[in-house]
């Protein structure tokens, strides 16, 4: 079997939790989960190089068995990931269910693709990454069960491997995904033969599945008009010829951007009152990337931009919930901004707008609520056709580049399901406080402009 003529499928199997239970594990959808019931999977690829020379037999006899065993042990602590999203005909609400025979699809593959090219930061077509992503089959309109995770490990002979993961957003946000992946890496680094099937994770990796009660609303208020678990076609993967680019802002670049903001604000506020400002690495990186994005789109950019972000609110609820809460626990904040402001009004202006959104969330639990999902096929389509919707995904605080499975930290952590106008902000491999900016653009011309604009900061 081949996939996109670039990957040869070697094996497809199922990985079950190591600690088999005769009972089922059921989770209701919490208030923050409902927005993502029809979202397509979150797809990621994490690339690992192996510095020393190794044989193919080392990959197949050591790496793969160890990854399978550690995944089985990890799933014992994350049972819902091995289960399904269900919506039986006799149930008024969908729910997540793990049953004793459930398991995660695990694919082993091999490729002759250039490891350094597909794991590099230089702009390239996003389709280069698609063969390394496993597929959770998009359900047809009558489907009543959807898997929640699939894994693919692809071997680059003499170079290393990548781990591709596809996860359903209805079960987990980025923080929850990070918790699972860190747990898997931690267990894989251990001497697996010494671990029992009932191995207890350290407390910092132990998930909490207790649903929050302080944002509960009547679940029936969230039920979409159309009874379907089908993934929204509007949100599926971007066209394969779109260009993915990744750029690193060092701590020096970040400090220069912060200084620039303060200088602009000082000039604007002479003789006036000061306003509160959340001047973080995240804020200045997002603001700068947004300005470069809008300018790169030139005349193809719509006149109004919807600037938004998603904020983790685990510690902001009253009472707060566990920092290891496993599920979705984010609130979304956004505002409409004229596109001309990104071109004419100055860097500090956009920084202040993003800062305002964050301070609004930090203002207290009264500002936090779960939103009813829109009718994606109609309302969202109309909304997106009139504005330039820009948002940020991921966060450098999740430390993606610290996930060492025992063979070193990743070479590259990539969000494949990035989508149009989404900007991914993550930590960097150096772990020095810099930030990695990734985004997709529809053609090389726009990417060339973006590269030129971002270089003004880098230089």
From TrEMBL:
Alphabetized UniProt keyword annotations: Acyltransferase, Transferase
Organism this protein belongs to: Momordica charantia
Domain of life: Eukaryota
InterPro entries per UniProt: CAT-like_dom_sf, Plant_metabolite_acyltrans
The UniProt record lists the keyword Nucleus: no
Gene3D superfamilies: Chloramphenicol acetyltransferase-like domain
Gene from which this protein is expressed: LOC111006182
GO terms for MF: acyltransferase activity, transferring groups other than amino-acyl groups
PANTHER family referenced in this protein's UniProt entry, alphabetically: PTHR31625
UniProt-recorded name of the protein: Phenolic glucoside malonyltransferase 1-like
Any Pfam family matching the protein: Transferase
Taxonomic lineage of the native organism: Eukaryota, Viridiplantae, Streptophyta, Embryophyta, Tracheophyta
């Amino acid at each position: 079997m081949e996939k996109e003529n670039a990957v040869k499928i070697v094996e497809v199997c199922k990985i079950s939790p190591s600690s088999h239970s005769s009972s089922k594990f059921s989770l209701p959808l919490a208030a923050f989960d409902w927005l993502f019931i029809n979202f397509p999977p979150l797809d990621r690829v994490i690339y690992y190089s192996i510095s020393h020379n190794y044989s193919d037999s080392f990959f197949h006899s050591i790496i793969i068995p160890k990854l399978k065993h550690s995944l089985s042990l990890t799933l014992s602590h994350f049972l819902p990931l091995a289960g399904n999203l269900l919506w039986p005909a006799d149930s008024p609400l969908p729910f997540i269910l793990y049953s004793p025979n459930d398991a995660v699809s695990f694919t082993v593959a091999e490729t002759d693709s250039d490891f350094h090219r597909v794991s590099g930061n230089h702009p390239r077509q996003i389709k280069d990454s698609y063969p390394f992503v496993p597929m959770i089959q998009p359900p047809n309109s009558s489907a009543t069960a959807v898997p929640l995770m699939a894994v693919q490990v692809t071997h680059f002979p003499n170079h290393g491997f990548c781990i591709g993961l596809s996860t359903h957003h209805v079960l987990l946000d980025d923080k929850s995904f990070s918790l699972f992946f860190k747990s898997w890496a931690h267990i894989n680094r251990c001497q697996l033969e010494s671990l029992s099937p009932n191995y207890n994770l350290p407390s910092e990796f132990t998930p909490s599945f207790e649903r929050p009660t302080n944002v509960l609303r009547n679940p029936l208020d969230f039920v979409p008009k159309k009874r379907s678990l089908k993934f929204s076609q509007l949100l599926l993967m971007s066209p394969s010829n779109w260009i993915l680019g990744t750029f690193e802002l060092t701590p020096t670049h970040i400090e220069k951007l912060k200084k620039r903001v303060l200088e602009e604000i000082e000039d604007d506020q002479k003789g006036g009152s000061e306003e509160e400002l959340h001047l973080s690495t995240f804020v200045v990186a997002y603001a700068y990337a947004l300005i470069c994005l809008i300018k790169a789109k030139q005349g193809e950019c719509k006149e109004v931009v919807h600037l938004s972000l998603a904020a983790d609110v685990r510690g902001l609820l009253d009472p707060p919930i566990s920092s290891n809460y496993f599920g979705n626990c984010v609130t979304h904040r956004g505002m409409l901004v004229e596109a001309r402001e990104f071109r004419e009004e100055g860097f500090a202006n956009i920084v202040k707008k993003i800062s305002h959104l964050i301070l609004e969330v930090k203002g207290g639990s009264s500002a936090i609520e779960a939103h009813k999902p829109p009718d994606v096929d109609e309302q969202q389509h109309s909304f997106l056709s009139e504005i330039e919707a820009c948002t940020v995904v991921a966060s450098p605080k999740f430390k993606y580049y610290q996930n060492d499975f025992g063979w070193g930290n990743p070479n590259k952590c990539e969000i494949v399901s990035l989508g149009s106008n989404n900007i991914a902000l993550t930590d960097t491999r150096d772990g020095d406080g810099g930030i990695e900016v990734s985004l997709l653009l529809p053609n090389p011309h726009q990417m060339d402009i973006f590269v030129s604009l971002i270089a003004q900061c880098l230089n």
